[in-house]
Amino acid sequence: MSTNYDLIVIGAGPVGENIADYATKGGLSTVIIESELVGGECSYWACMPSKALLRSVHAKKAADRVGGAQEAVTGEIDVAAVLRRRDSFVSEYRDASQVEWLESAGIDLVRGYGRVTGVRTVEVTTDDGVVELTANAAVAIATGSAALLPDIPGLADVSPWTSREATAVTEIPTSLAIIGGGVVAAEMATAFTGLGSAVTVIARSGLLGPMEPFAGELVGTQLEKDGATLRLGVSPTAVRRNEQGDVVLELDDGSRVIAAEVLVATGRTPRTDDLGLASVGLTDGDWLSVDDTLLVDADTNSDEQWLYAAGDVNHRALLTHQGKYQARAAGEVIAARALGKPVDDAPWGAHVATADHGAVPQVTFTDPEVASVGLTEKAAQNAGHHVRSVDYEIGSIAGASLQADGYEGRARLVIDEERDIVLGATFVGQDVADLLHSATIAVVGQVPVSRLWHAVPSYPTISEVWLRLLESYGRPRS
């Protein structure tokens, strides 16, 4: 194996793989470094296993909400079968197929822990010793993020779960306390309630706070219908295990919650500890700020243009698909700069991640689903836009009533009245995830609202909500 490459990528998750792939396709020699499994967090401990757990829960609920199908569903969820299906999606926690893909793409792999030791130099600690690598063009950091453990007395001593333990669970606990109210907390509350745990969610700031307020309200209502307990507006002050082995959480309102296990879902921290960033004027443990070409912002890097960071580690949008979007731009711009080719770094150009600033799509796989893109009404107002929001009850749509008996959900468009474009959209309801890409295209393309009237939704589908939202907003004036 060579020790000199055009590009060195640290982190072989989906982001790192895409940086390396696009740079390789651009004509560069690349090597990728990974200390765990090739495929990263998303493949083994986040996106894929969590959605595998949730899918069985959603499928049963969907059948239960349709007369005729409801009568055919007579048993409970087979938890063992759910876990076996989850295991199939994580390839039994083996990465052979991912390694084969790297080989087929012409990307070298070094297994070990990589540290930057200077400009374009990386040291890798492997099982066989230390390997020194040098890059002709660039080094890209794609090490992602890890669960953040809050500083609560006793919490670390009770062996709390993070998202990793929750998605890799081998036995469903009788009860589960979840600290946090974000996406991970809400999704895992949905999954474990559906799989038979007595779930208590402890969320100081409520559920899904950064989203439109009705998203958290509708998800919370359904969680309570399903048997979960919501403790909103309170925080744990101390955590311990009792003599029976259960976790006892003391709350700041004087009450307590007792559960078999506790899951901490209070945010993420960058995986930049001990990366050697001090050797190039940065700080280990910090998020890496980047420009729109994913070049790290630092005085030591401004002239040399060699250090890049994509995915969670740059804190722009902590979502796998958004990290991969950044990675495609990063891989291509690294190759272009290395080979002296033109760089298209204007907004929405081939070599920038412009969408990070106001066109980020996200699906939260709760019940009901939450699909959103762009700015919320509050965020748009705070940014100084003159907006008007329109809402519509999705259950009033013919396609929704066919999808599920008693369908409940809501949609919102946030419209910039000065520019006649959609700044944001949120859909909350069963099976709304596939509505999101049309909204994303409208936001990214800055499609005039007057033109959206000519995008006719098919009947009878849930997508007819687009027509009802436009009708609520009003026909364009001639």
Explain what you see.
The structure is a single chain. With 478 residues, this protein is an alpha/beta fold. It folds into three domains: 4-39 and 95-146 and 269-355, FAD/NAD(P)-binding domain (3-Layer(bba) Sandwich), CATH 3.50.50; 148-266, FAD/NAD(P)-binding domain (3-Layer(bba) Sandwich), CATH 3.50.50; 368-473, Enolase-like, domain 1. It has helices spanning 14-25, 40-45, 47-64, 69-72, 79-89, 96-104, 163-167, 183-194, 213-225, 299-302, 320-338, 377-382, 398-403, 436-444, 449-452, 465-473; strands spanning 4-10, 30-34, 108-111, 113-118, 121-126, 129-141, 145-147, 175-179, 198-203, 229-232, 236-241, 247-251, 256-259, 261-264, 268-270, 307-309, 361-364, 369-374, 387-393, 410-416, 421-429. Strands 1, 2, 3, 4, 5, 6 and 16 form a seven-stranded mixed β-sheet that branches. It is globular. The termini are far apart.
Write the layout of secondary structure elements.
Elements: E1 4-10, H1 14-25, E2 30-34, H2 40-45, H3 47-64, H4 69-72, H5 79-89, H6 96-104, E3 108-111, E4 113-118, E5 121-126, E6 129-141, E7 145-147, H7 163-167, E8 175-179, H8 183-194, E9 198-203, H9 213-225, E10 229-232, E11 236-241, E12 247-251, E13 256-259, E14 261-264, E15 268-270, H10 299-302, E16 307-309, H11 320-338, E17 361-364, E18 369-374, H12 377-382, E19 387-393, H13 398-403, E20 410-416, E21 421-429, H14 436-444, H15 449-452, H16 465-473
Parallel strand pairs: 1-2, 1-6, 2-3, 6-16, 8-9, 8-14, 9-10
Antiparallel strand pairs: 4-5, 5-6, 7-15, 11-12, 12-13, 17-18, 18-21, 19-20, 20-21
Helix pairs in contact: 1-11, 3-5, 3-8
